[in-house]
Amino acid sequence: MSPAQIRFLTLVRREVNRFFKIKRQTVGAPLLETFLYISVFGAALGTRIDQLHGVDYVVFIIPGLIMMAWATNAFSNNSSSLLQQKFQRSIDDQLSSPASPVELLLAFSLGGFLRGGIVATLTFIASSILVGVPVEHVLVLIPALFLVGFFFSQLGVLVGLRAEQFDDVSFYQTFILQPLIFLGGVFYSATLLPEPFETLTQFNPVYYMIGLVRYGFIGYSETNIALSLLFLTVAAGILFTVNLRLFNRGYRLRA
Amino acid sequence: MYALAIKDLVKRYPTGTEALKGVSLEIEEGEFYGLLGPNGAGKSTLIHCTTGLAQPTSGAIEVFGHDAIHHYGDARLAVGLAPQEPNLDWFLTLEESLDFHGGYFGMTRKDRRERAQELLETFSLSDKKDQRTRTLSGGMKRRLILARALMHRPKLLILDEPTAGVDVELRLELWHYVQRINAEGTTILLTTHYLEEAEQLCNKIGFINGGEIVATGTSADLAREYGVTNLEDAYLKLVGRGELSRAHIGSEA
Predict the structure, then answer these.
(1) Is B253's pLDDT higher than 70?
(2) Helix (H, G, I), strand (E, B) or coil at B59
(3) What sign does the CA torsion over B44, B143, B123, B78 have?
C-alpha cells in the first residue's frame, strides 16, 4: 500500500473506530428505535390497517424505516464527530498531517455513510426474518440507498463544520431533519392525505427519497423514479461541492 | 538548506487583527531555536501557519526546501508538532493515538507498531497503553503529546510551550530527551515563557513582539544588544518592563 492509501484508510478507520467504541449508542440505539417503530406502527397499529397499495402496512413502512436509519445515522455521526473533534481540537492532528482537503472530507463522510449502512443493513436483515421484505428493483434500490446515505453524510459534515456547540447539531436534527423525514411519508402514503397536505408533501425532498427506496423494495412509487434519481444525484453533488470548497478554505477548521 | 525558512509572513485575521506583520526567520538544520515573546506576540500563529493549522495571508514558508503552504505534503511529513494545549482525542487509547498519527503520515502497520512501542517505553507510558487518553494526568498527557509529535520521525520538531504547568522532574526529563534528539540531528523550534529553559537548551533565540521578530542571536548576543547582562533582563527590556529586573530587587533591598 502506498503512503497515501495508508493515510486515507487510517482517516476512515479513525471514524469507524469512533462509532464502534460507542456502539451501544451509535448502532444499538438506532436499531432498537427502528424495532420500536416496527412494533408500534407495524405489529400493533398495522393489524387494524388494511393493505396499502397491495402490501401489508408493516411491509409498506419498512423501506422508509431502512432509509430513515441510513439517513439519520449518516447525518448524526458526521455532525457529531466533526464537532467533537473540533471541540477537543484533536482534529488538528489530521489537519497538520499531509492529508488533502478532499481526503479529509471523504474520510469524514465515509464514517457516517458506513454507520448508516450498517444500521440499515441490520434493520433489513432483521425485518426480512420477522415479516419478510421483498426486493423488487435492486438496480434502483442500491443506488437510491447509496445516494441517500451520501447526501445525508454530506449534510452531516456541513452541519458539523458550521456548528460551534452541540446545541447547533441537535437543532438541525430535531427541528429540520426529523420533521422532514416523518412528514415525507415514512409511515403513510401521501395519497391518503387531504389537500393541501398532499400537495405540500411534494415540496419535501425526503418524499422523493422514500419514493425511490419504496419502489426498490416493493415496486410501488408515487413519484417519478428517473427524475427522483436525477434530483438526488444533483443534490448530493451540490452538497459535496459546497463541502469541498469549505474544506479547501479551511472554513471553521483552520484559523 | 534551512530546516525552516519563513519570508515576509503576514497573518491577518478576518477581524482585521494582524498577528504577524511580515515575519522572516531562518532556522539552520540541527539548530535548537527558541522563540520568545509575550502572550499574543504571534508565536503560536507562526507555528500554526507552518503546520497548516492557520492559513497565511501572504508570505512564504519552506521546510527543508519544501513549500509548506501550497504543496505542503513533503513539508508536513518533515514536521512534528507538540501543541501548547493538549489536544488528544478522549475516545482513543494511548496506543491508538500514536497508531492513528503514524497512519496519517503514511507509516506501515509494522513500523507504527514498533515505533509506538518504542515511544511508549521512552516516555514511561507502556503500562497505560490501553487506557483512554482522558484518564491521563496533565503530565502524562504532555508526554503523550510529545511522543505523538515524534511518532513519524520528523526532522523538525516544534514544541509550543511544552513544559507549561508540568512538575520539575518531568520538565527535566523532557529537557534531557529533547537535548538528546537534537544531538542526534533533529532540528527543534521551541516557544517557552521559561527563560531559563531557553537559555539552557537553545543555541539561538529569536524575540518576537507585536507580530515581528525584533532580535535574533545567542542569549549573550541578545543581552549585549539590549545593553544588559542576561537573557531575562533583555526580555524585560523587550516587553518594556525593565523595572522588574532582579538587579533592581537586589538594590531596593
Answers:
(1) no
(2) strand
(3) negative
In angstroms, the separation between the Cα of residue A155 and the nearest Cα of chain B is 24
From the CB of residue A147, how many other CB atoms can be counted at a distance below 10 Å? 21
Q: Cell digits for A73?
A: 445515522
> Chain A within 8 Å of B177 (Cβ-Cβ)?
no
C-alpha closest to that of A162 among A96, A79, A254? A79
Measured between CB atoms, which of A9, A90, A254 is closest to B87? A90
Cβ-contact B203, B216 below 8 angstroms: no
Closest alpha carbon to B88 in B159, B127, B154, B136: B136
Amino acid B175 reads: W
* pLDDT at residue B250, rounded to an integer: 59
In this predicted structure, what is the pLDDT of residue B247? 76
For every residue of B145-191, DSSP letters joined together read: HHHHHHTT--SEEEEESTTTT--HHHHHHHHHHHHHHHHTT-EEEEE
Q: What is the pLDDT of residues B206-226, one digit of tens each?
A: 999 999 999 999 999 999 988
The closest of B185, B225, B175 to B205, measured between CA atoms, is B225
| Average pLDDT over all residues of chain A | 92
Strands B204-209 and B32-36: parallel
- Residue B239: predicted pLDDT: 82
Distance, in Å, from the CA atom of B158 to the CA atom of A142, rounded to the nearest integer, reads: 48
Domain ranges of chain A: 3-249
pLDDT higher than 70, residue B88: yes
Q: Assess: ipTM above 0.95.
A: no
Strand order in the sheet with B187-191: B79-82, B156-160, B187-191, B32-36, B204-209, B212-217
pLDDT band at A55 (very low <50, low <70, confident <90, very high): confident
Write the DSSP string, A101-145.
HHHHHHHHHHHHHHHHHHHHHHHHHHHHHHT----S-HHHHHHHH
B105: contact with A, CB 8 A cutoff: yes
Burial state string for A184-223 with b = 16 or more CB within 10 A and e = fewer than 16: bbbbbebeeeeeeeeeebeebebbbbbbbbbbbbbebbbb
User: How far out from the chain centre does Cα A50 lie?
Assistant: 29
Q: Taking an 8 Å Cβ-Cβ cutoff, which residues of chain A contact chain B?
A: 1-4, 6-7, 9-11, 13-14, 17-18, 21-22, 85, 88-90, 92-99, 250, 254-255
How many whole angstroms separate alpha carbon A23 and alpha carbon B239?
Answer: 53
Q: What is the largest CA-CA distance in chain B?
A: 63
- Using an 8 Å CB-CB cutoff, list chain B residues near A89: 83, 85, 87
